[in-house]
Amino acid sequence: xxxxxxxTAQRIQRHSSHEHTIDFGINxxxxxxxxxxxxxxxxxxxxxxxxxxxAGRVTQWSTGTPIFHSVQIDEGAIDWTPRFGFNGYRYLDxxxxxxxxxxxxxxxxxxxxxKVGTFRSxxxxxxxxxxxxxxxxxxxMHSVFTDCPHREKLGWLEQLHLCFGALTRxxxxxxxxxxxxxxxxxxxxxxxxxxxxxxxxVDFSGLEFRGDTNAFREDPNWGGALVRMAWAHYRxxxxxxxxxxxxxxxxxxxVYLAGRSxxxxxxxxxxxxxxxxxxxxREIVATHGWIGxxxxxxxxxxxxxxxSRAVSLIEQADGVVRSLLSRHALSxxxxxxxxVLLADLDKAESTRYLAALxxxxxxxxxxxVGEVALPAFIRLFTQTDRDRRLxxxxxxxxxxxxxxxxxxxxxxxxxxxxxxxxxxxEGSQNHFMLGMIDDWLRETIAGLRQADNDIRWRNAVxxxxxxxxxxxxxxxxxxxxGLYSVAWDTAxxxxxxxxxxxxxxxxxxxxxxxxxxxxxxxxHEFFRxx
Length: 530
Description:
Blueprint: E1 2-8, E2 11-16, E3 19-38, E4 42-49, E5 51-52, E6 58-59, E7 69-73, E8 76-80, E9 87-95, E10 103-110, E11 117-121, H1 124-139, H2 158-162, H3 164-168, H4 174-187, H5 220-223, H6 225-237, H7 241-260, H8 282-303, H9 307-327, H10 336-345, H11 350-364, H12 374-383, H13 387-394, H14 402-407, H15 437-446, E12 448-450, E13 459-462, E14 472-479, E15 482-489, E16 494-499, E17 504-507, E18 518-519, E19 522-527
Parallel strand pairs: 13-17
Antiparallel strand pairs: 1-10, 2-3, 3-8, 3-9, 3-10, 4-7, 4-9, 5-6, 11-14, 12-13, 14-15, 15-16, 16-19, 17-18
């Protein structure tokens, strides 16, 4: 880890002569630093936290407690910071006699992965949302990608593949994610199962969740990160080593999952984590994850030259789809998560599922899906050209969701839709596991995505959804192939595009723009017809 930036205290609230609360303005992962000239010895105790209570003092309910630093300061010059560990915090309660010359800063710590992407929009809410995702990634980008930088610091795996685009389009994490795959391989259990965290620093066996006594240790949407991320990594960076290194572990895991199946489906694990509807079928959530694992494993075997195995896995996945759809028919009682996950597997009926989802949304009044179903929720609206409706749902400032977080002045993405603790999560104010919305911002709003069958970003698709709401958006990405960028503005009727040497892009602009269907390397600008 390295010091990425240094924040100065934005506000110091004095409660008494020896009690102060310092606000650094942004919720980060790091350590406090005190510089001063002390005239006599004193002891200071510091309590870091993400939130303040009604009295304006630090509360540690979202971070775990007690977390504190205690230091004896001698007379003379001081430049103190903790030597070991780091905290997730925005605020610092300080108890003791602070020297009058004290200057408080925060050293923001993270892995020194290079920044490779940006996003901006004329809709300031969307720009702000991107910043929240980016801050949460930074706050959890350490030796492993953690879930939060305070109470656990554990490498929960589902976020690595669910938020793969958010990670890779913001930072160069090629080597970092290869290291994560190594940790998952090493953590594989004798049964072939892959634990929910890697390195497996805590054994969560026996920790019950909604009837599954092993839910926090074995879930296909968590352990399956090995398969999903290995394939995504190869597609993004083009390094076949990630497939060669992991194929044996992948195959052992496939045998394990098949052994856990009943009725041709899976029914174990955590379900749709942080979802607001607790009656969502765990069987649908787990089996949807299994199908994705089988399909990605088939692609891995295809690239490695085992075509018969690839065909067998696709046939197995198709069989699991049939089994799941036969056991779970769409009904008026289907939850939002159930509807979108089934729609993801039954795309020919997307119109019917979309109608069912809208009816459910009218009944629920807000989005209730959790992190596992959220990508499918976004896909259903995007694939049916209803991005404006999706924007309305996600960015409502008064309902649980992204808009609520933005309107509530969050400074990093939070763990739950409500920003609070409860059955749906513990209320961390610095989690990137809901950060998959960053894919939608870059790929759909700005309109830059990797072509479906492409490897290493040699080919892109540029298809901005200009009717979604914003009047302008732009994104830049220093891909493994080189720099891609898209910047569009409907007010001036212009699109600017950059394609790297060796790259190309299919253009899908509205019909009233002067643009070809494909462009090659170079800088291009196109204008809307008057």
